[in-house]
């Protein structure tokens, strides 16, 4: 796992843990719990273009990832989201399939 540590250090890990705790691990895409990854709500390039800090917890939310698929819907939410805006990938709950 050391290969992916890169430039993200202790500060990042603390921010991530904080975001996961604050949101109780509720995934932003499928809205089920148990997420251990975080993803940017506003795509990172757009966020930085607005002058945002890439590690600002305000722009981070829990999400399911490749090694952390959702145990409820079995999605890999991070992969299905990619760099697309959240509205495009977010699961709309309560909608009917006519
Ligand atoms: Zn999810
Ligand atoms: Zn799910």
Descriptors:
alpha+beta, two-stranded antiparallel sheet, 4 helices, 98 residues
Topology:
Blueprint lengths: L9 H13 L14 E4 L3 H6 L10 E4 L13 H5 L4 H4 L9
Antiparallel strand pairs: 1-2
The chain binds zinc ion (2 copies).
Into which percent range does the helicity of residues fall? 25-40%
User: Topology as H/E string?
Assistant: HEHEHH
- Report strand order across the widest sheet: 1-2
Q: Profile the largest sheet.
A: 2 strands, antiparallel
Q: What molecules are bound to this protein?
A: zinc ion
Can you walk through the features of this model?
The protein is α+β, with helices and mostly antiparallel strands and 98 residues long. The protein has a domain at 26-89. It has helices at residues 10-22, 44-49, 77-81, 86-89, and strands at residues 37-40, 60-63. Strands 1-2 form a two-stranded antiparallel sheet. The protein is globular and about 45 Å long. It binds zinc ion (2 copies). One zinc ion (ZN) binds at residues 27, 29-30, 32, 35, 64, 70, 75, 77. Residues 27, 29-30, 32, 35, 64, 70, 75, 77 line the site of one zinc ion. This is HNH endonuclease. Keywords: Endonuclease, Hydrolase, Nuclease. GO terms for molecular function: endonuclease activity.
